TrEMBL record:
It comes from Neomoorella glycerini. The keyword Membrane applies. GO terms for biological process: amino acid transport. PANTHER family: LYSINE EXPORTER PROTEIN (LYSE/YGGA) (PTHR38825), TRANSPORTER, LYSE FAMILY (PTHR38825:SF1). This is LysE type translocator. Keywords: Cell membrane, Membrane, Transmembrane, Transmembrane helix. One of its GO terms (cellular component) is plasma membrane. The chain crosses the membrane at residues 6-31, 43-67, 73-90, 138-166, 196-217. Pfam families: LysE. It is found in: Cell membrane.
Length: 223
């Protein structure tokens, strides 16, 4: 049993890390939030993301996977998720173009005003909402995630715990590294470059939102 649990933990960690490393809405939001809150943005976003995934885990244990895999459901999720991504992307671009993003963090030695971070609860909530807006996140849980949960459940409560721990730790490690890197780098690149970075991230979300809506409309959402 211990060997099986370790194998499950390791596999869940590697599969989760492979997904976390791919560019997506949560990575884009992590970059934007790190310009406001610094390195602490990563753990807060992953907390919101993880709470949503914990809820999904329990729902899958109750048999939700077969419902999410239905074509009509996946199409509706894609369209609604795309609409949320369009809204988030537009808000990021608007904030950057309006000059609401500053280069410094509280405690920097220069006198430039620092952008006040959003409330911690809002950052946590954003981590969950950005995941919920991504139809591929739901489809991953309806297919790959459901298969993992079924395997973990056969090992009992310990199996479920080891699976989820491995999965969420991959997200926590990666996004903490990303936000720490961006927070450190903001002191050596210009304010204009940071605004361009946020605009680029916003544009990425707009493109992703359009693609999600188009895929949902055509019924071509797939892993």
């Amino acid at each position: 049993m211990p060997a099986e649990l370790l194998a499950l933990f390791t596999t869940a960690f590697m599969v989760g890390l492979s997904g976390a490393l791919m560019p997506g809405p949560l990575l884009t939001l992590a970059i934007e939030e790190s310009t406001r809150r610094g390195a602490g943005a990563g753990p807060l976003l992953v907390l919101g993301h993880g709470l949503l995934e914990l809820l999904m885990l329990f729902l899958l244990l109750l048999g939700l996977g077969s419902f999410l895999a239905q074509p009509t459901v996946s199409r509706v999720v894609a369209v609604l998720g795309g609409a949320v991504l369009l809204w988030l992307g537009t808000d990021m671009i608007r904030s950057a173009m309006a000059g609401q993003l500053q280069l410094t963090l509280p405690g920097d030695k220069d006198n430039l005003p620092a952008l006040p971070p959003r409330p911690a609860l809002r950052t946590v909530t954003a981590g969950g909402l950005i995941s919920l807006a991504n139809p591929y996140w739901l489809l991953w849980w309806a297919t790959i995630g459901a298969a993992f949960v079924a395997q973990a459940a056969r090992l009992g409560a310990g199996g479920v715990a080891f699976f989820f721990s491995g999965h969420i730790l991959s997200d926590l490690g990666w996004y903490s590294l990303v936000t720490a890197g961006v927070a450190a780098g903001r002191r050596v690149i210009s304010q204009r470059a940071y605004r361009y970075l946020i605009v680029a991230c916003g544009l990425f979300l707009l493109v992703l939102g359009v693609l999600f809506i188009a895929a949902g409309y055509r019924g071509q959402i797939s892993l």
